């Protein structure tokens, strides 16, 4: 009996090693990838010093209420990780994690029936900003006191979802209004830019020149010039089923777009599109897992991490070869994803 068990254990180990293959990267410096397991009620933590090691942070509160996370975001200063989550009673919380211990530091209850979507922080990690889809607002929270500072009203039937912060402004994707709201944080002024499609998420080039927005229904990516305010439409390949999240490399040369599908009765997708930022053209299509959703690039621009919601995995793409080199098992139905390193986090 013991011999049989030993054989089974060895077989399992061989399967795990073969799934990573010879492409498994050499040990990294202290860095992690945080993944929001929406159906699992947890945050998966991939330790990049040993990518076979994945732990989970249970978001259930002391009263036994299970909170389901949608989005996760590392603070730029590396001192906290922020999660948007909702329980079965539609209570919405921001949950703050200490990345040094991977334990919950604080819970900020923002209300009921808000449907919190995404959260970002300003460059100094002084304030967090979170979209509340059902109330058409962006909520600002002090990152030190955890108190609500103010609420930005975007207008009726906007349904804000993804957002990013850059140079004192928030760029918010509105699914219902089919627009991008630009919020000047200093004075609270909101400007709406019509896009002609269901805007899901925004991305910012690190050189501060462009904002990118995914349009799910029209299967496009918008390239918005911050200098000229001109809009360039980037049509995705005919195989596209509906883009969701997107992220630019630190050198502002490439843009990675997770093509999810499923919404609007579309088939799910296993594609990530690569766009050249300079000429606004699709350069490559990379196959990942089923229902690609979240995407983030590491601080050195070497690896891209993509959540595969239906496979309960994260695909790792090598930027140099433009191929998915291995996958990491995570929690149930992963969505949002964020990259953390010892002294900071990717915005």
From TrEMBL:
Record-linked InterPro entries: Host-pathogen_enzymatic-act, N2O_reductase_N, WD40/YVTN_repeat-like_dom_sf, YVTN_b-propeller_repeat
Origin superkingdom: Bacteria
Originating organism: Cerina litoralis
Name of the protein in question: Uncharacterized protein
Gene3D superfamilies hit by this protein: YVTN repeat-like/Quinoprotein amine dehydrogenase (2.130.10.10)
